[in-house]
Automatic annotation (TrEMBL):
Residues 43-294 form the G-protein coupled receptors family 1 profile domain. It comes from the Eukaryota. GO terms for biological process: cellular response to lipid; G protein-coupled receptor signaling pathway; sensory perception of smell. GO terms for cellular component: membrane; plasma membrane. Keywords: G-protein coupled receptor, Membrane, Olfaction, Receptor, Sensory transduction, Transducer, Transmembrane, Transmembrane helix. The keyword Transmembrane applies. This is Olfactory receptor 572. Coiled coil: none annotated. It is found in: Membrane. The chain crosses the membrane at residues 26-49, 61-91, 103-126, 146-165, 213-231, 243-264, 276-296. GO terms for molecular function: G protein-coupled receptor activity; olfactory receptor activity. The gene is Or51h5. SUPFAM superfamilies: Family A G protein-coupled receptor-like. It comes from Mus musculus (Mouse). It is a multi-pass membrane protein.
Amino acid sequence: MADHNHSQSQHLYFILTGIPGLEQKYYWMAFPLGAIYVIALFGNGVIISTIKSESSLHIPMYYFLCMLAFADMGLTLCTLPSMLGIFWFNYKFITFDGCLVQMYFIHTFSAIESGVLVAMAIDRVIAIWSPLRYGTILTNGVVCKIGMLILSRAVCVVFPVPFLIKRLPFYRSNILSHSFCLHQDVMRLACASTRVNSLYGLIAVIFTKGSDSLSILISYVFILRTVMAIASGEGRLKALNTCVSHICAVLIFYVPLIGVSVIHRFGKHLSPLTHALMANAYLLVPPVLNPIVYTVKTKEIRKKIIQIFIRTKITTEG
């Protein structure tokens, strides 16, 4: 009988929250938000198509960039339905199972992006430490295996999370703090002990983001030691210049991530607006800024974008 009552009171859906305090301005915010999604999808799509079509970019460095663009597109597509539903149509409901699916894919693509950033750091280490053996060490087969390892790790580590949430009862508040489902946000609404969820979440973060950030840090210590051993100042500058885009991508990903983690853990006294803005920055900033950074630094990608606009203009005029 108790089990029957529990199943009857279990929430069938959650209510998503947009940006608290700005509900009256959603109509005007819908347009820039739509533009952000267009930029993210278009920018990452151009990077993928350029790397695919330009034979000069068929090297490990750009294969990893292609993986990063796929992860960014995945993150963008995960949040797009619920974000646009809120800001364009004022539709704030998401089913319980739909929330679990969105949560799984958000955290999976985030883990993939973190793993790709490590692979890109290792790529830079090999390119600077042993440029003559770069092609023989990072062969297409090795790059493919690294990509499969990154994907497998993300899928397996995040896989238990929805099932750990599914077992919890939810029959009080069903109002989430964000415009999408995150593990920490859904977990706090549970009406039972979440110790197992918290412990597994901590282990998963340490195994992915924690170990990845440490690996990137160690890689750059090694890079700096190698660069400092180069005799000429011009050679040192040239070597470091090849790392600028990757350093920007690391900062773009990890700064919002650390901000969201700190706020969830220690910022309970902060306004809901701060929580919402940091969570949105965590998921929207990397997919938008990464293509811009790599477009500025990669001549072939710039040429591809120019060709697209020229072709569009000729078609329109014709």
